[in-house]
Design goal:
Rossmann fold; alpha/beta; eight-stranded mixed beta sheet; three-stranded mixed beta sheet
């Protein structure tokens, strides 16, 4: 069973439907015991970093997430769920993230001819060693919706990058932890392959 963490941050149903399309059993839950006993865990989300961290804290979920990661269950953060795994965000100064991976979330710089938020399809350069992104080609197109981006501290954690005004770390991978700034559930066949890869991680 894949547990989808529920913390009132939206973007749940499209993720659930994508996994169900792949034949996976999923459950939306904020229950600690269900999350800890799940085969795999997903933290999706859209919205503001500070509001999301408060919602996680109000539900007692940060310790549960850290425990899941420590147990070794495959864990996937999507969009805001990815950003929350890191140390901090310029969107919410003074609000610490989960700090599971080292890095910070920065605002996409303004640039003439480019709109922020970044909304649409962009190609990525993929780390060939990535398990999450295996089999999707060297420069696949995926769908983004975001105003802030990851700058990972450890380059070994970067699974893919893209460029939109600035170099963006579009996916991260470290042991049993996987994360993507883009929306695999909205990225057509490429996105479904990424979610299938996650579902099949051992």
């Amino acid at each position: 069973m894949i547990a989808i963490i529920d913390y009132d941050a939206g973007n749940m149903m499209s993720v659930i439907k994508a996994f169900q399309y792949l034949g996976e059993t999923v459950e939306i839950t904020s229950d600690r015991s269900k999350i800890l006993s799940a085969d795999k865990v997903v933290l999706p989300g859209v919205g503001a970093f500070g509001d999301a961290m408060k919602s996680l804290q109000d539900s007692g979920l940060p310790d549960t997430i850290r425990e899941v990661v420590g147990q070794g269950q495959p864990f996937l953060g999507i969009c805001l769920g990815m950003q929350l795994l890191f140390d901090s965000s310029e969107e919410s100064p003074g609000v610490p993230g989960l700090g599971i991976l080292p890095g910070k979330i920065l605002r996409i710089p303004e640039q003439e001819g480019l709109k922020v938020p970044h909304m649409g399809w962009n190609n990525m350069t993929v780390n060939p060693d990535s398990r999450l992104l295996a089999g999707i080609g060297e420069e696949p197109y995926v769908y983004f919706v975001h105003s802030y981006y990851l700058q990972a501290e450890d380059p070994r954690d970067v699974a893919a990058s893209t460029f939109y005004s600035v170099k963006i770390h579009a996916a991260a991978e470290h042991g049993n932890i996987f994360a993507c700034q883009f929306h695999p559930e909205k990225s057509s066949e490429t996105g479904l392959r990424i979610l299938r890869n996650f579902a099949e991680v051992k």
